[in-house]
Protein backbone atom coordinates (compact mmCIF):
# COMPACT_ATOMS: atom_id res chain seq x y z
CA UNK A 1 0.00 0.00 0.00
CA UNK A 2 1.10 3.57 -0.62
CA UNK A 3 1.60 5.96 2.28
CA UNK A 4 1.73 9.76 2.31
CA UNK A 5 5.34 9.92 1.16
CA UNK A 6 5.82 6.92 -1.15
CA UNK A 7 3.83 5.53 -4.08
CA UNK A 8 2.63 1.91 -4.17
CA UNK A 9 4.89 0.98 -7.11
CA UNK A 10 8.49 2.18 -7.58
CA UNK A 11 11.43 1.25 -9.78
CA UNK A 12 14.11 -0.89 -8.09
CA UNK A 13 16.77 1.05 -6.20
CA UNK A 14 14.55 3.95 -5.09
CA UNK A 15 13.58 3.89 -1.42
CA UNK A 16 13.69 7.47 -0.13
CA UNK A 17 10.50 9.23 0.92
CA UNK A 18 9.12 11.77 -1.52
CA UNK A 19 9.49 15.42 -0.52
CA UNK A 20 6.77 18.07 -0.35
CA UNK A 21 7.13 21.72 -1.37
CA UNK A 22 4.98 24.46 -2.85
CA UNK A 23 5.08 24.41 -6.64
CA UNK A 24 5.97 28.12 -6.54
CA UNK A 25 9.39 27.18 -5.10
CA UNK A 26 10.21 24.84 -7.99
CA UNK A 27 8.98 26.60 -11.12
CA UNK A 28 8.34 29.91 -12.87
CA UNK A 29 4.89 30.84 -14.17
CA UNK A 30 3.53 32.78 -17.15
CA UNK A 31 0.53 32.87 -19.51
CA UNK A 32 0.01 32.25 -23.21
CA UNK A 33 -1.32 35.06 -25.38
CA UNK A 34 -3.97 35.49 -28.08
CA UNK A 35 -5.49 32.98 -30.52
CA UNK A 36 -8.95 31.41 -30.63
CA UNK A 37 -10.67 28.86 -32.86
CA UNK A 38 -11.52 31.70 -35.27
CA UNK A 39 -7.78 32.22 -35.91
CA UNK A 40 -7.13 28.66 -37.03
CA UNK A 41 -6.19 27.99 -40.65
CA UNK A 42 -5.12 25.07 -42.85
CA UNK A 43 -1.55 26.37 -42.91
CA UNK A 44 0.56 28.78 -40.92
CA UNK A 45 2.43 28.76 -37.63
CA UNK A 46 1.79 25.82 -35.26
CA UNK A 47 -0.35 26.89 -32.29
CA UNK A 48 -1.82 25.13 -29.26
CA UNK A 49 -5.25 26.14 -27.93
CA UNK A 50 -6.32 25.08 -24.45
CA UNK A 51 -9.32 23.07 -25.72
CA UNK A 52 -7.03 20.62 -27.51
CA UNK A 53 -5.67 19.44 -24.17
CA UNK A 54 -9.11 17.89 -23.60
CA UNK A 55 -9.61 16.36 -27.04
CA UNK A 56 -6.26 15.70 -28.66
CA UNK A 57 -3.08 15.76 -26.62
CA UNK A 58 -1.72 13.27 -24.11
CA UNK A 59 1.00 14.03 -21.56
CA UNK A 60 3.73 14.83 -24.10
CA UNK A 61 3.06 17.05 -27.13
CA UNK A 62 5.56 16.42 -29.93
CA UNK A 63 3.37 17.08 -32.99
CA UNK A 64 1.00 20.03 -33.35
CA UNK A 65 -1.71 19.88 -36.02
CA UNK A 66 -3.41 23.28 -35.63
CA UNK A 67 -2.10 26.42 -37.33
CA UNK A 68 -2.68 30.18 -37.47
CA UNK A 69 -1.06 33.32 -38.80
CA UNK A 70 1.59 34.37 -36.29
CA UNK A 71 0.58 37.41 -34.23
CA UNK A 72 2.67 40.05 -32.57
CA UNK A 73 3.43 39.42 -28.89
CA UNK A 74 2.87 35.68 -29.34
CA UNK A 75 4.29 33.42 -26.66
CA UNK A 76 6.53 30.86 -28.34
CA UNK A 77 7.67 27.60 -26.75
CA UNK A 78 11.32 26.76 -26.22
CA UNK A 79 10.48 23.14 -25.40
CA UNK A 80 9.89 21.70 -21.95
CA UNK A 81 7.01 23.98 -20.92
CA UNK A 82 4.23 22.40 -18.86
CA UNK A 83 0.86 23.84 -19.92
CA UNK A 84 -2.34 23.75 -17.87
CA UNK A 85 -5.74 24.98 -19.12
CA UNK A 86 -6.88 28.23 -17.52
CA UNK A 87 -10.54 27.56 -18.43
CA UNK A 88 -12.73 24.49 -18.70
CA UNK A 89 -16.26 23.15 -18.34
CA UNK A 90 -15.63 21.22 -15.11
CA UNK A 91 -12.98 21.25 -12.35
CA UNK A 92 -11.96 17.75 -13.47
CA UNK A 93 -11.40 18.96 -17.05
CA UNK A 94 -9.13 21.75 -15.97
CA UNK A 95 -6.98 19.64 -13.63
CA UNK A 96 -4.63 18.30 -16.28
CA UNK A 97 -1.30 19.17 -17.84
CA UNK A 98 0.85 18.44 -20.90
CA UNK A 99 4.48 19.05 -21.78
CA UNK A 100 5.24 20.97 -24.97
CA UNK A 101 8.22 18.88 -26.04
CA UNK A 102 8.93 20.92 -29.17
CA UNK A 103 10.18 24.48 -29.70
CA UNK A 104 8.66 27.19 -31.86
CA UNK A 105 4.98 26.60 -31.06
CA UNK A 106 2.68 29.53 -30.25
CA UNK A 107 0.86 29.03 -26.93
CA UNK A 108 -2.71 30.35 -26.80
CA UNK A 109 -4.03 32.84 -24.28
CA UNK A 110 -6.03 30.50 -22.05
CA UNK A 111 -2.98 28.45 -21.05
CA UNK A 112 -1.05 28.62 -17.82
CA UNK A 113 2.63 27.99 -18.55
CA UNK A 114 4.95 26.40 -15.98
CA UNK A 115 8.70 26.35 -16.57
CA UNK A 116 10.35 23.95 -14.14
CA UNK A 117 13.62 24.63 -12.32
CA UNK A 118 16.52 22.19 -12.51
CA UNK A 119 15.36 19.91 -9.69
CA UNK A 120 11.97 19.19 -11.31
CA UNK A 121 11.42 17.16 -14.50
CA UNK A 122 8.64 18.65 -16.71
CA UNK A 123 7.23 15.28 -17.80
CA UNK A 124 7.00 14.13 -14.18
CA UNK A 125 5.30 17.39 -13.24
CA UNK A 126 2.72 17.06 -16.00
CA UNK A 127 2.00 13.47 -14.99
CA UNK A 128 1.62 14.17 -11.28
CA UNK A 129 -0.52 17.27 -11.90
CA UNK A 130 -2.87 15.13 -13.99
CA UNK A 131 -2.89 12.04 -11.76
CA UNK A 132 -1.39 12.54 -8.30
CA UNK A 133 -2.80 14.18 -5.19
CA UNK A 134 -2.15 17.52 -6.91
CA UNK A 135 -5.02 16.84 -9.29
CA UNK A 136 -7.53 16.72 -6.43
CA UNK A 137 -6.03 19.87 -4.96
CA UNK A 138 -6.31 21.71 -8.30
CA UNK A 139 -9.89 20.52 -8.70
CA UNK A 140 -10.74 22.13 -5.34
CA UNK A 141 -9.03 25.38 -6.33
CA UNK A 142 -10.87 25.69 -9.69
CA UNK A 143 -13.35 28.56 -9.53
CA UNK A 144 -16.60 29.23 -11.39
CA UNK A 145 -19.91 27.63 -12.34
CA UNK A 146 -20.75 27.31 -16.06
CA UNK A 147 -17.06 27.88 -16.88
CA UNK A 148 -14.37 27.15 -14.31
CA UNK A 149 -11.03 28.94 -14.13
CA UNK A 150 -7.62 28.05 -12.76
CA UNK A 151 -5.00 30.79 -12.41
CA UNK A 152 -1.25 30.73 -11.96
CA UNK A 153 -1.82 32.06 -8.46
CA UNK A 154 -3.74 28.82 -7.75
CA UNK A 155 -1.02 26.66 -9.27
CA UNK A 156 1.70 28.33 -7.19
CA UNK A 157 -0.06 27.19 -4.01
CA UNK A 158 -0.23 23.53 -5.08
CA UNK A 159 1.61 21.22 -2.68
CA UNK A 160 3.91 19.13 -4.85
CA UNK A 161 5.05 15.67 -3.76
CA UNK A 162 8.11 14.52 -5.69
CA UNK A 163 11.13 12.18 -5.53
CA UNK A 164 14.75 12.90 -6.50
CA UNK A 165 15.33 14.03 -10.08
CA UNK A 166 16.71 10.69 -11.33
CA UNK A 167 13.54 8.89 -10.19
CA UNK A 168 11.37 11.61 -11.76
CA UNK A 169 13.17 11.11 -15.08
CA UNK A 170 12.76 7.33 -14.83
CA UNK A 171 9.01 7.71 -14.26
CA UNK A 172 8.66 10.22 -17.10
CA UNK A 173 10.61 8.01 -19.53
CA UNK A 174 8.46 4.98 -18.62
CA UNK A 175 5.20 6.77 -19.43
CA UNK A 176 6.66 8.33 -22.56
CA UNK A 177 7.43 4.85 -23.93
CA UNK A 178 3.95 3.68 -22.94
CA UNK A 179 2.39 6.66 -24.78
CA UNK A 180 4.47 5.90 -27.89
CA UNK A 181 3.17 2.32 -27.86
CA UNK A 182 -0.43 3.50 -27.39
CA UNK A 183 -0.08 6.01 -30.24
CA UNK A 184 1.35 3.30 -32.53
CA UNK A 185 -1.56 0.95 -31.80
CA UNK A 186 -4.02 3.82 -32.29
CA UNK A 187 -2.54 4.58 -35.72
CA UNK A 188 -2.78 0.91 -36.73
CA UNK A 189 -6.40 0.80 -35.59
CA UNK A 190 -7.26 4.03 -37.41
CA UNK A 191 -5.62 2.70 -40.59
CA UNK A 192 -7.62 -0.53 -40.38
CA UNK A 193 -10.86 1.41 -39.93
CA UNK A 194 -10.02 3.64 -42.90
CA UNK A 195 -9.19 0.54 -44.95
CA UNK A 196 -12.57 -0.95 -44.10
CA UNK A 197 -14.30 2.33 -44.93
CA UNK A 198 -12.59 2.33 -48.33
CA UNK A 199 -13.67 -1.24 -49.08
CA UNK A 200 -17.25 -0.47 -48.04
CA UNK A 201 -17.29 2.37 -50.57
CA UNK A 202 -15.84 0.25 -53.38
CA UNK A 203 -17.43 -3.18 -52.81
CA UNK A 204 -21.07 -2.02 -52.94
CA UNK A 205 -22.59 -0.41 -56.08
CA UNK A 206 -23.16 3.35 -55.95
CA UNK A 207 -25.43 5.83 -57.73
CA UNK A 208 -27.59 3.29 -59.55
CA UNK A 209 -24.71 1.11 -60.77
CA UNK A 210 -25.37 -2.60 -61.24
CA UNK A 211 -21.93 -3.76 -60.12
CA UNK A 212 -19.42 -2.49 -57.54
CA UNK A 213 -16.05 -0.96 -58.34
CA UNK A 214 -14.15 -3.84 -56.68
CA UNK A 215 -15.16 -7.52 -56.91
CA UNK A 216 -13.68 -10.91 -56.19
CA UNK A 217 -12.48 -12.82 -59.28
CA UNK A 218 -15.04 -15.05 -61.00
CA UNK A 219 -18.12 -12.90 -60.33
CA UNK A 220 -19.53 -11.03 -63.33
CA UNK A 221 -23.34 -11.01 -62.96
CA UNK A 222 -25.22 -7.75 -62.32
CA UNK A 223 -26.47 -7.17 -58.79
CA UNK A 224 -30.24 -6.93 -58.20
CA UNK A 225 -32.19 -4.32 -56.25
CA UNK A 226 -34.40 -5.74 -53.51
CA UNK A 227 -36.41 -4.36 -50.60
CA UNK A 228 -35.26 -5.72 -47.26
CA UNK A 229 -38.66 -7.33 -46.68
CA UNK A 230 -37.95 -9.60 -49.67
CA UNK A 231 -34.70 -10.99 -48.26
CA UNK A 232 -35.05 -10.86 -44.45
CA UNK A 233 -37.45 -11.92 -41.69
CA UNK A 234 -38.08 -9.60 -38.74
CA UNK A 235 -38.27 -10.76 -35.11
CA UNK A 236 -39.20 -7.60 -33.21
CA UNK A 237 -42.00 -9.43 -31.37
CA UNK A 238 -39.38 -11.24 -29.25
CA UNK A 239 -37.70 -8.09 -27.91
CA UNK A 240 -38.05 -7.42 -24.17
CA UNK A 241 -36.62 -4.48 -22.16
CA UNK A 242 -35.12 -5.21 -18.75
CA UNK A 243 -34.42 -2.96 -15.77
CA UNK A 244 -30.91 -1.55 -15.35
CA UNK A 245 -30.45 -3.35 -12.02
CA UNK A 246 -30.64 -6.73 -13.79
CA UNK A 247 -28.11 -5.87 -16.52
CA UNK A 248 -25.19 -7.15 -14.47
CA UNK A 249 -26.71 -10.47 -13.46
CA UNK A 250 -25.47 -12.90 -16.10
CA UNK A 251 -23.27 -13.57 -19.12
CA UNK A 252 -25.65 -12.92 -22.02
CA UNK A 253 -25.00 -9.63 -23.87
CA UNK A 254 -27.90 -7.19 -23.49
CA UNK A 255 -28.31 -5.08 -26.64
CA UNK A 256 -29.99 -1.72 -27.13
CA UNK A 257 -29.88 0.88 -29.89
CA UNK A 258 -26.16 1.54 -29.58
CA UNK A 259 -24.82 -1.90 -28.75
CA UNK A 260 -24.14 -3.84 -25.56
CA UNK A 261 -25.58 -2.15 -22.46
CA UNK A 262 -24.92 -4.89 -19.93
CA UNK A 263 -25.08 -8.64 -19.30
CA UNK A 264 -28.15 -10.55 -18.15
CA UNK A 265 -29.44 -14.02 -17.35
CA UNK A 266 -31.44 -15.71 -20.11
CA UNK A 267 -31.86 -14.56 -23.73
CA UNK A 268 -34.46 -13.37 -26.21
CA UNK A 269 -32.76 -14.54 -29.42
CA UNK A 270 -30.47 -17.44 -30.25
CA UNK A 271 -28.83 -17.59 -33.66
CA UNK A 272 -27.35 -15.35 -36.33
CA UNK A 273 -29.07 -11.95 -36.60
CA UNK A 274 -28.65 -8.33 -37.64
CA UNK A 275 -29.57 -5.62 -35.12
CA UNK A 276 -30.58 -2.19 -36.46
CA UNK A 277 -31.23 0.72 -34.08
CA UNK A 278 -34.92 1.65 -33.89
CA UNK A 279 -34.55 4.78 -31.76
CA UNK A 280 -32.02 6.38 -29.44
CA UNK A 281 -29.03 6.03 -31.80
CA UNK A 282 -26.06 8.15 -30.69
CA UNK A 283 -24.54 8.58 -34.15
CA UNK A 284 -26.94 9.17 -37.04
CA UNK A 285 -24.12 9.55 -39.60
CA UNK A 286 -22.80 6.06 -38.78
CA UNK A 287 -26.12 4.48 -37.93
CA UNK A 288 -25.78 1.52 -35.50
CA UNK A 289 -26.11 -1.76 -37.39
CA UNK A 290 -24.60 -4.87 -35.76
CA UNK A 291 -24.09 -8.54 -36.46
CA UNK A 292 -24.66 -11.02 -33.62
CA UNK A 293 -24.27 -14.78 -33.52
CA UNK A 294 -25.44 -16.78 -30.52
CA UNK A 295 -27.59 -16.11 -27.47
CA UNK A 296 -28.41 -12.42 -26.96
CA UNK A 297 -31.04 -10.35 -25.15
CA UNK A 298 -32.42 -7.48 -27.25
CA UNK A 299 -34.50 -4.63 -25.82
CA UNK A 300 -37.19 -2.70 -27.69
CA UNK A 301 -34.78 -0.08 -29.13
CA UNK A 302 -33.19 -2.32 -31.77
CA UNK A 303 -34.86 -4.08 -34.70
CA UNK A 304 -33.94 -7.75 -35.13
CA UNK A 305 -33.76 -9.12 -38.67
CA UNK A 306 -32.40 -12.31 -40.17
CA UNK A 307 -31.48 -13.09 -43.78
CA UNK A 308 -33.69 -15.60 -45.56
CA UNK A 309 -31.41 -18.61 -45.91
CA UNK A 310 -31.81 -19.20 -49.63
CA UNK A 311 -31.51 -15.52 -50.62
CA UNK A 312 -29.05 -13.60 -48.49
CA UNK A 313 -26.11 -13.69 -46.09
CA UNK A 314 -26.36 -11.94 -42.73
CA UNK A 315 -22.80 -10.58 -42.63
CA UNK A 316 -23.14 -9.23 -46.18
CA UNK A 317 -26.51 -7.63 -45.43
CA UNK A 318 -25.19 -6.01 -42.25
CA UNK A 319 -22.51 -4.22 -44.29
CA UNK A 320 -24.96 -3.46 -47.12
CA UNK A 321 -27.29 -1.72 -44.65
CA UNK A 322 -24.33 0.17 -43.17
CA UNK A 323 -23.56 1.52 -46.64
CA UNK A 324 -27.02 3.16 -46.79
CA UNK A 325 -27.50 6.72 -45.54
CA UNK A 326 -30.30 6.03 -43.01
CA UNK A 327 -30.74 9.64 -41.88
CA UNK A 328 -33.37 10.67 -44.50
CA UNK A 329 -35.59 7.76 -43.40
CA UNK A 330 -35.68 8.72 -39.71
CA UNK A 331 -38.64 10.46 -38.07
CA UNK A 332 -38.97 12.34 -34.81
CA UNK A 333 -36.95 15.06 -33.10
CA UNK A 334 -34.39 14.60 -30.34
CA UNK A 335 -34.85 10.81 -30.35
CA UNK A 336 -34.92 9.99 -34.07
CA UNK A 337 -36.75 6.75 -34.93
CA UNK A 338 -36.49 4.22 -37.73
CA UNK A 339 -39.95 2.66 -38.00
CA UNK A 340 -40.18 -1.05 -38.78
CA UNK A 341 -42.19 -0.58 -41.98
CA UNK A 342 -39.66 1.98 -43.23
CA UNK A 343 -36.75 -0.36 -42.40
CA UNK A 344 -38.31 -3.25 -44.28
CA UNK A 345 -38.87 -1.09 -47.37
CA UNK A 346 -35.24 0.05 -47.55
CA UNK A 347 -33.73 -0.94 -50.87
CA UNK A 348 -30.50 -2.91 -50.99
CA UNK A 349 -28.68 -4.09 -54.08
CA UNK A 350 -27.40 -7.65 -53.79
CA UNK A 351 -25.50 -10.22 -55.86
CA UNK A 352 -25.89 -14.01 -55.85
CA UNK A 353 -25.62 -15.53 -52.38
CA UNK A 354 -22.24 -17.10 -53.20
CA UNK A 355 -20.77 -13.63 -53.83
CA UNK A 356 -22.53 -12.25 -50.76
CA UNK A 357 -20.86 -14.92 -48.61
CA UNK A 358 -17.46 -14.10 -50.08
CA UNK A 359 -17.94 -10.41 -49.28
CA UNK A 360 -19.44 -11.16 -45.86
CA UNK A 361 -16.49 -13.38 -44.88
CA UNK A 362 -14.03 -10.73 -46.08
CA UNK A 363 -15.59 -8.07 -43.85
CA UNK A 364 -15.87 -10.51 -40.93
CA UNK A 365 -12.12 -11.13 -41.09
CA UNK A 366 -11.53 -7.38 -41.28
CA UNK A 367 -13.86 -6.78 -38.30
CA UNK A 368 -12.12 -9.52 -36.30
CA UNK A 369 -8.74 -7.86 -36.95
CA UNK A 370 -10.13 -4.46 -35.94
CA UNK A 371 -11.60 -5.96 -32.75
CA UNK A 372 -8.26 -7.59 -31.90
CA UNK A 373 -6.38 -4.29 -32.34
CA UNK A 374 -9.03 -2.46 -30.31
CA UNK A 375 -8.60 -4.94 -27.46
CA UNK A 376 -4.82 -4.50 -27.52
CA UNK A 377 -5.25 -0.71 -27.45
CA UNK A 378 -7.79 -0.87 -24.62
CA UNK A 379 -5.47 -3.16 -22.64
CA UNK A 380 -2.57 -0.74 -23.08
CA UNK A 381 -4.74 2.17 -21.93
CA UNK A 382 -5.92 0.21 -18.90
CA UNK A 383 -2.33 -0.75 -18.13
CA UNK A 384 -1.32 2.92 -18.25
CA UNK A 385 -4.29 3.88 -16.07
CA UNK A 386 -3.28 1.28 -13.50
CA UNK A 387 0.31 2.50 -13.35
CA UNK A 388 -0.83 6.13 -13.08
CA UNK A 389 -2.88 5.22 -10.04
CA UNK A 390 -0.04 3.39 -8.31
CA UNK A 391 3.12 5.35 -9.25
CA UNK A 392 2.19 8.76 -7.82
CA UNK A 393 1.52 9.92 -4.29
What does this protein structure show overall?
The N and C termini lie close together (11 Å). This protein has 393 residues and is α+β, with helices and mostly antiparallel strands. The chain has 10 helices and 22 strands. It folds into 3 domains: 1-13 and 165-217 and 352-393, Orthogonal Bundle (Helix Hairpins), CATH 1.10.287.1120; 19-162, Adenine-n6-DNA-methyltransferase TaqI, Chain A, domain 2 (Alpha-Beta Complex), CATH 3.90.220; 224-350, DNA methylase specificity domains (Adenine-n6-DNA-methyltransferase TaqI, Chain A, domain 2), CATH 3.90.220.20. It has helices at 52-55, 91-94, 122-131, 133-141, 152-156, 165-202, 228-231, 314-322, 340-344, 353-390, and strands at 19-22, 27-31, 40-41, 45-48, 60-61, 67-68, 81-85, 87-88, 98-100, 106-107, 111-116, 143-144, 148-149, 159-162, 224-227, 232-234, 252-256, 259-264, 269-277, 289-298, 302-307, 347-350. The longest helix has 38 residues, at 165-202. 32% of the residues lie in helices and 23% in strands. The model has no long low-confidence stretch (mean pLDDT 92). It is elongated, with a radius of gyration of 27 Å. A hairpin with a 3-residue loop joins β12 and β13 (148-149). A 6-stranded mixed sheet has the order 16-21-19-20-17-18. A 5-stranded mixed sheet has the order 2-11-7-9-5.
Amino acid sequence: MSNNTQPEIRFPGFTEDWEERKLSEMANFSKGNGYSKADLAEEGHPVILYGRLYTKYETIIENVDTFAELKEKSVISNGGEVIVPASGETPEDISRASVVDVSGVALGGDLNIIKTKSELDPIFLALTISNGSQQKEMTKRAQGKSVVHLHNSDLKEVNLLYPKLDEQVKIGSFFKKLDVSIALHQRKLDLLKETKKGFLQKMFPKNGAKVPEVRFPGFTEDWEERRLQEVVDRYDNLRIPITASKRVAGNTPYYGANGIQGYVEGYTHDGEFILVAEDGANDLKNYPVQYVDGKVWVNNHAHVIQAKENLADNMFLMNAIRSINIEPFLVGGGRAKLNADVLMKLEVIIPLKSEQQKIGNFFKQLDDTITLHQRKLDLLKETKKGFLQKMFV
